[in-house]
Amino acid sequence: MNVEKTKVMKISRQPTSITINIDQKRLENVKCFKYLGSLLTDDGRCRCEIKSGIAMAKAAFSKKKNLCTSKLDLNLRNKLVKCYIWSMALYGAERWTLRAVDQKHLESFKMWCWRRMEKISWTDYVRNEEVLIRVSEQRNILHEIRKRKANWIGHILRGNCLLKEVIEGKIEGRIEVTRRRGRRRKKMLDDLGDRRGYFHLKEKALDRIKWRNCFGRDCGPVVLTDY
Predict the structure, then answer these.
(1) Do residues 119 and 113 touch, judged by C-beta distance below 8 A?
(2) Which of 44, 53, 61, 195 could disulfide-pair with 89, CB 3.0 to 4.6 Å?
(3) CB 95 within 8 A of CB 151
(4) In the chain, what percentage of residues exceed pLDDT 90?
């Protein structure tokens, strides 16, 4: 183990440091850590990773601005934006737990792409609905994230792997839980919207055809909920 390259991060609501020594050297405590392209933070949320992905996607759009704003066919330019730009912003979206503020950031990024593609300035006072009509698109970036998550979770629930054991696993023992103000934290599987619980969701995932029908292209709207 390389002590210089090894970092320690504690994911908790209380930002306290922990001490781990290797060969009489203390490992550095960090608040965020980038692993396989994903940005992990000590609060367990996805806000920093989403903002980082949006920033990289906007930089990529600026590099390909001449191509995306050219006189090519509209459908072709839409595909270029979704393939080249959206893929950078939505990297690792399968494991995101989206809050209302995160969903608004993603919606704003999507409209930013369409406005830049059509060369619409914010001073033109063009409504988002009109922009969507011009580019022949809908508000579908949250649907895309939901489908990706459903495909990934369905693949895990149908198999027998370590990720499935992590999702279903329970830690033995008792933990003192103090009552906190507000709602409970939103969980990763809450976006799939099955109120009958995890085991019903797992049973549905075993039928691949039924699972695809539930989270296909024509799935219901994604409602913004604040957690």
Answers:
(1) no
(2) 53
(3) no
(4) 20
